[in-house]
C-alpha cells in the first residue's frame, strides 16, 4: 500500500506567513514500534491432527519456508505478507536469556493483518513493553524553503544532508544511540526515489519524526511536547527582538557549527530566544494543536499492540 493512502485523518489548516496565507495539511501517526518481552516457554500450536506444545524457536523453525516466515541468521526471522513484502522482524535476543523482540511499522500492516499481528504478539510474549516508538507528523503543501529552515535548538548533535541542488533533504538531531533522535526529511522526494506514486496535487511533503527508545518510548506524549518546545525557525521572532539578535540567530541556524564558537552563556541566550520564537511560531503551534487532537488515537493504537495494557496516561504531568 502506498504511504500516501494511509493519510486518512489528515488535518486541514491555514498558515499565515508575511503577506501569504498558505494551505497546510498535517497528520500524526505511529511510524515504527519495537516490542520486547519474555518469551513464553509453552506455546500451543494447533495442527490439523494435534496440538503441539512448543517453545518460541521451535515454533519459528516449524514455520520456516511456509511463505510468510523467512529465517535471517541464527536467531531472527522476517514476517512476510501475501505479496512477500517484509512487514516485521522478530528475533531471540542474544544477550537477554529468554527474551525476544518484534520490530514493525504499523502503517505497512493492513487491517486484516493487524489483528493477526496483535494475536501473534499476545501468544508469544509475557510482560511485553515498548523499547522503541517512532511518532511522526506528515506536513503537506508548505513550501520546501519554508520548512527546511526549521531546527531543533536543544544542545544535541546536528547532521544535515543536502542534495545536489544544495537544498536540505534530511536533518538529524541527536545520535542513533540516544534515547531521542529527531529526523526531519523530504518525504515526497523519498517516495519519488522509491518510484512510489505521489498524487500530482501534492506539491510538498515533509515528515517530522521522533525516534524514541527505552524510557523515552514510554514517555512519548511528554517527549513530543518537549521536542516541539525546541522546534524553531527564523520566521516568527517575538516583536521586541533586536535586529542584531535576529541576524545572529539566522546565522546560527544557517551554519550550525558556529554554535561551538560561542561562550556558554551566549549559547543559552540564543537558545532561549529561539524557544521564545517557538511559542510564537505558527507552524509549531499547528503541530502542537494537531498533536493534542491526535493524542488519544495514538494512545489507543499503542495500547492495542500491548493487548490493552496502558502505555501512558495522556496529558499526565
Automatic annotation (TrEMBL):
Pfam families with a match to the protein in the record: Rep_trans
Cited InterPro entries: REP-like_C
Source organism superkingdom: Bacteria
Domain Replication initiation protein-like C-terminal intervals: 169-225
Keywords for this protein: Plasmid
Protein's name according to its UniProt entry: RepA
Gene behind the chain: repA
Amino acid at each position: 500500500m502506498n504511504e500516501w493512502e494511509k493519510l486518512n485523518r489528515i488535518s486541514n489548516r491555514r498558515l499565515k506567513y508575511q503577506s501569504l496565507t498558505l494551505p497546510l495539511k498535517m497528520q500524526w501517526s505511529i511510524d515504527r514500534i519495537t516490542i520486547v518481552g519474555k518469551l513464553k516457554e509453552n506455546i500451543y500450536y494447533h495442527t490439523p491432527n494435534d496440538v503441539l506444545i512448543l517453545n518460541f524457536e521451535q515454533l519459528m523453525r516449524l514455520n520456516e519456508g511456509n511463505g510468510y516466515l523467512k529465517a535471517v541468521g541464527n536467531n531472527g526471522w522476517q514476517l512476510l505478507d501475501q505479496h512477500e513484502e517484509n512487514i516485521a522482524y522478530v528475533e531471540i535476543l542474544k544477550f537477554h536469556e529468554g527474551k525476544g523482540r518484534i520490530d514493525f511499522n504499523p502503517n505497512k500492516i493492513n487491517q486484516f493483518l493487524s489483528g493477526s499481528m496483535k494475536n501473534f504478539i499476545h501468544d508469544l510474549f509475557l510482560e511485553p513493553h515498548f523499547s522503541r516508538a517512532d511518532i511522526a507528523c506528515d506536513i503537506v503543501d508548505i513550501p520546501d524553503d519554508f520548512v527546511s529552515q526549521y531546527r531543533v535548538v536543544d544542545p544535541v548533535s546536528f547532521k544535515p544532508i543536502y542534495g545536489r541542488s544544495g537544498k536540505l533533504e534530511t536533518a538529524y538531531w541527536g545520535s542513533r544511540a540516544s534515547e531521542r533522535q529527531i529526523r526531519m526529511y523530504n518525504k515526497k522526494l523519498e517516495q519519488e526515489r522509491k518510484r512510489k506514486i505521489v498524487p500530482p496535487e501534492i506539491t510538498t511533503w515533509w515528515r517530522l519524526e521522533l525516534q524514541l527508545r527505552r524510557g523515552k518510548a514510554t514517555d512519548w506524549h511528554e517527549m513530543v511536547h518537549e521536542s516541539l518546545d525546541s522546534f524553531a525557525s527564523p520566521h516568527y521572532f517575538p516583536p521586541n527582538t533586536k535586529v542584531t539578535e535576529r541576524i545572529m540567530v539566522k546565522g546560527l541556524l544557517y551554519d550550525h557549527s558556529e554554535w561551538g564558537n560561542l561562550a556558554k552563556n551566549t549559547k543559552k541566550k540564543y537558545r532561549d530566544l529561539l524557544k521564545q520564537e517557538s511559542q510564537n511560531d505558527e507552524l509549531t503551534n499547528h503541530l502542537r494543536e494537531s498533536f493534542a487532537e491526535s493524542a488519544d488515537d495514538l494512545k489507543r493504537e499503542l495500547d492495542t499492540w500491548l493487548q490493552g495494557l496502558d502505555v501512558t496516561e495522556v496529558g499526565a504531568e
